[in-house]
Write the structure tokens for this entry.
Amino acid sequence: MTSKLLTASLLASALVAGLGMAPTVAMAQNTNTPGIDNAQQAISARIQQGMQAGRITPSEAQELYARDRDISMRENRYKSDGNATPQERQQLRADLEGLSAEVERKIANNVVVGQPGYNPNTPGVDNSQFNISQRIDEGVRTGRISEREARRLHGRERMIERHEANFKSDGVVTKQERRQLRNEVAALRDQVERMMRNDRRGRG
């Protein structure tokens, strides 16, 4: 009987000790937001699906990705002091839920771009730009691209978009103009990939 009581006492002590350590482990993980990161990846995938299905236009996707980038930047700021608080996590989740709902509303739209009369002129360039945006966001989330670097990269994106808008302003994009856009996009993509290959984590 004494042996059983001793065993129970030891188990209880071990359980208490384990519970006592739990908050420390949780605090050490406060900078990790896997659920939020996974939600962002799922939203990006849904935007791509919407574009491929013709339910989301390139301009709509651009706006959605911009909202996703804003959330990523805010998430990075929350983590910068080493502690993403429960309130900050809740705010990020609420923003992602709103963005996800907006994506789903657009996908549920009955209007399909790509129907007769729809001619985006530069679908390959547009898709490449969106893929680059996703890679930049991924770089920010993984710490391989800093917020400052991301702003510069997105600035180059906007410059390419302005060039594209100018080329489209007369109603047609020539082969030479498409070639220039492809070259600009390729140069930006190469720079992003170089950054992603280098372990730049920990840089401001």
User: Anything to note?
Assistant: The chain is about 75% helix and 0% strand. The radius of gyration is 23 Å.
